[in-house]
Amino acid sequence: GIPTKLTPSQINDGYCDCPLDGLDEPNTSACSGSLDGMWTGIPPKHHSTDHDASKPSAYFVCPQQPSLQLPLSRVNDGIC
């Protein structure tokens, strides 16, 4: 991929600027799920041998809307 230049203020700022590797957010959960294939358009880094690799390995079920399953990177972002 094309290298992304970031300013120091973009490191650990809670926004995942580098979803392919998550290196800009080592101390936050902003990029969680991006390496597991839970983000649209981002292929999983780790290939699962599970028969249903299309399902995320971990997700949050919204108590107010049990049918809504959110990638962990979306927890506490105001959706639920």
Assembly state? single chain
Proportion of residues in helical segments = under 10%
Radius of gyration: 14 Å
Estimated share of beta-strand residues: 5-15%
Widest sheet: strand order? Answer: 1-2
Contiguous uncertain segments of 5+ residues: none
Number of strands: 2
Main β-sheet: number of strands, strand sense, barrel status?
A: 2 strands, antiparallel
- The backbone outline, from C-alpha atoms, is globular
| SSE ordering | EE
Mean pLDDT: 75
**Class by SSE composition:** little secondary structure
The N- to C-terminal Cα distance equals 33 Å
Our count of helices gives 0
Short description:
The protein is mostly loops. Helices cover 0% and strands 8% of the residues.
Give an account of the 3D structure.
The protein is mostly loops and 80 residues long. The protein is 0% helix and 8% strand. The protein has no helices and two strands.
Structure characteristics:
80 residues, 0% helix, globular
Give the arrangement of secondary structure elements.
Blueprint: E1 59-61, E2 69-71
Antiparallel strand pairs: 1-2
